[in-house]
From TrEMBL:
Major location category of this protein: membrane
Family annotation (Gene3D superfamilies): Fumarate reductase/succinate dehydrogenase, transmembrane subunit
Protein name (database record): Succinate dehydrogenase hydrophobic membrane anchor subunit
Compartments, record wording: Membrane
Membrane-spanning ranges: 39-62, 82-102, 122-141
CC per GO annotation: membrane
GO MF entry, a single one: metal ion binding
Superkingdom per UniProt: Bacteria
Alphabetized UniProt keyword annotations: Heme, Iron, Membrane, Metal-binding, Transmembrane, Transmembrane helix
InterPro entries xrefs: SQR/QFR_C/D, SuccDH_FuR_B_TM-su
CDD domains, alphabetized: SQR_TypeA_SdhD_like
Length: 159
């Protein structure tokens, strides 16, 4: 980062002259993966706008809106295959989009090979854990588990 005489602050382009030659990286070798990743960010971003704003509208504004959100509300939504698939696609796209965005930031700003490898390993492990757990929750969620103690289950299960 450098400050010019008129106090404007400018940030150097990533991977520009600031990097020591000992951390120089060779270009290429990845086919068109980076181009596809660039395209994925645009396509997933456009789809996420529809998924996220519909999600917010249905959960927070329709009917009693935010006041209706509780355990039973979520149970009711996930009883419908439409909302299961909606939430699944939203989870996967948001996670892959966010993970790829952070991957690019790490590639741009972490100079040492070991730093990049460490940060990206943590990123990928965290993403896989969240995607797998989230997917399992959406499809295995049972609001009224058989055999659960009566004081542990929701009122509507007893009816
Ligand atoms: C509302 C829908 C969204 C749209 C339209 C959108 C759009 C975009 C686009 C076009 C980029 C690429 C920017 C570039 O290459 O310069 C981007 C980057 C990124 N997005 Fe999203 N995004 C959305 C939602 C999300 C969500 C939900 C997350 C987090 C899970 C997220 C995390 C990121 C990150 C970390 C980057 C990299 C930032 C960067 O390059 O500076 N985005 N987004």
């Amino acid at each position: 980062m450098s400050t010019s005489t008129n106090e404007a602050v400018s940030v150097e382009a990533p991977r520009s002259g600031r990097i020591s030659p000992k951390y120089a990286r060779t270009a290429g070798g990845k086919g068109n993966f980076e181009m596809l990743a660039w395209l994925f960010m645009r396509v997933s971003g456009a789809i996420l706008i529809v998924l996220i704003f519909t999600h917010l509208f249905v959960n927070l504004m329709v009917g009693d809106g935010i006041h209706a959100v509780d355990f039973g509300f979520v149970a009711g939504k996930w009883a419908s295959p439409l909302w299961q698939v909606w939430d699944l696609v939203m989870l996967w796209l948001a996670m892959l989009h966010g993970t790829n965005g952070v991957r690019v930031i790490i590639n741009d700003y972490a100079d040492k090979n070991t730093t990049r490898m460490t940060l990206k390993s943590i990123l990928y492990i965290a993403s896989v854990v969240i995607i797998v757990l989230g997917t399992l929750v959406i499809f295995t969620f049972d609001p009224c588990p058989a055999g659960a103690p009566a004081d542990m289950i929701a009122d509507f299960c007893k009816a």
